[in-house]
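Our consortium's second objective concerns turning raw sequence data into structural hypotheses that experimental partners can test. To show how far this objective has progressed, the report includes one record in full. It was chosen at random from the queue rather than selected for favorable results. The single chain below, 222 residues long, was entered without modification.
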Amino acid sequence: MNILIIGEPTNLEEAKAKFGGQHNYTFERDHREAERFVVSNDLVFDFMIDEEPFQVAIYADKENAKVFVNTAKVSLAELSSLANHRIKAQLFGFNGLPTFLIREVMEVSVLNQQEEPKLKAACQELGTEYLMVDDRVGLVTPRIICMIINEAYYTVQEGTASREDIDLAMKLGTNYPYGPFEWCNRIGVKHVYELLEAVYEDTHDERYKICSLLKKEYLRAT
């Protein structure tokens, strides 16, 4: 299978680790450069669309293209709206945040339920298990993990415990593979902050209100 990866080199590495080296991979870091390769590949994985949502327009006239777009920070519905609902390519949402693709089960979404058979067929071609979730900003796993990270920042800010103690306590007490701050380092504080910001904007739920310490670290990193 021919697969186009749009993103960073680490995204290409994760795709190869997830789907295997038997596929032919084309890699591009720029949407405009990648556009010419969309129709010549069997599948596209766009890890960068959440950073440049208006670039969804490159899929408008690609009627036979099958594209997995990273919807951790932007929903399929929003992407469709940005393109005036004129996207002819088949878009599937997926959790494209760093480290999440290489899990055993791929977290995915569709805009309309009738598109699920096409998604199932694509996942079978890739040889991956998948979990269908609603088309909502933050999906499910990123939303939960980033909320836990945010709460951990509040705990440090209040002086209740150190980062090291929180990481150790969460791993021992809940059997998490990583503590909140270890997870934050793996995902990247930029992605954690921006996902929480997007979810809070979508829900106005106080659970996702960003800790000022997390915001400070985000601003220092950007």
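The partners drew two points from this record. The domain at 2-132 is CATH 3.40.50.720 (Rossmann fold). The first strand starts at residue 2 and ends at 6. Both points have been shared with the crystallography group to help prioritize constructs.
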